[in-house]
Design brief:
CATH superfamily: Pseudouridine synthase
Radius of gyration: 18 Å
Distance between the termini: 20 Å
Helix content: 10-25%
Order of helices and strands: EEHEEHEHEEEEEHHEE
Number of domains: 1
CATH topology: Pseudouridine synthase
CATH architecture: 2-Layer Sandwich
CATH class: Alpha Beta
Structural class: alpha+beta
Number of strands: 12
Largest sheet: 10 strands, mixed
Length: 223
């Protein structure tokens, strides 16, 4: 697992879809990004996670102090992440009544709660934790749209739950998409494509990008 950036304090990695961020329960779920990285960098520590089926940029700390400082940046929302996804249908049409800003961004606000009886599923529920996601459409075809997403909060499955809640589940989503939408892609079409923050030791502004691992001109078709 070769980092796309490394220095004495942190690592930036590009996680493939289908790989856990951290070990799961059971001997068959021990292979994960953190273990692969720690085999090469024993001091590396997790700061945040991506869902198993989500690909893209992930940050790890090198040592306890780096983990503390990077975790603080996440807690204070000073680490900026954006995602690309392909969703069923045309959210710009169905959500036209929701005001967009000058750059086309709209917001979804919906408290998210673990559905205990159907875990690991999460649902929108009044008793859930306050959650907000920003989104805008980049391009569309007859049946799907590629969108850019920015999670304002960081709840489990947040982007997937929010898009499903407005009627536009992500293609290939085995948890939140109906069978016909899940079948449109062999993988979840959700990718963490940008990551930006100020280095907590050097104060240098850092920004990283990873292109979507599916073809831009064929929505719903992954490479």
């Amino acid at each position: 697992m070769t980092p796309i950036h490394q220095d004495e304090h942190l690592l930036v990695l590009d996680k493939p879809s289908g790989l856990l961020s951290v070990p799961g329960r059971g001997p068959d779920k021990q292979d994960c990004l953190s273990k692969r990285v720690q085999d090469l960098y024993p001091e590396a520590l997790i700061v945040h996670r991506l869902d198993r089926d989500t690909s893209g940029l992930l940050l790890m700390a090198r040592g306890i102090e780096a983990q503390r400082r990077l975790s603080k940046l996440f807690e204070t929302r000073h680490i900026h992440k954006r995602y690309l996804a392909v969703v069923a249908g045309h959210p710009a049409h169905t959500q036209a009544a929701t005001m967009a800003d000058a750059d086309g961004w709209r917001s979804i606000d919906g408290p998210i709660l673990l559905d205990w009886e159907r875990r690991p599923l999460h649902i929108i529920h009044p008793d859930g934790k306050a959650s907000r996601s920003r989104w805008r459409v980049l391009q569309s075809n007859d049946s799907a749209s590629q969108i850019e997403l920015e999670p304002v909060t960081g709840r489990t499955h947040q982007l997937r739950v929010h898009l499903q809640s407005i009627g536009h589940p992500m293609l290939g989503d085995s948890l939140y998409a109906p069978p016909e939408v899940q079948a449109l892609s062999p993988r979840l079409l959700l990718h963490a494509h940008t990551l930006a923050f100020v280095h907590p030791f050097t104060e240098q502004a850092l920004a990283f990008a990873s292109p979507a691992p599916w073809t831009a001109n064929a929505l719903g078709t992954s490479k």
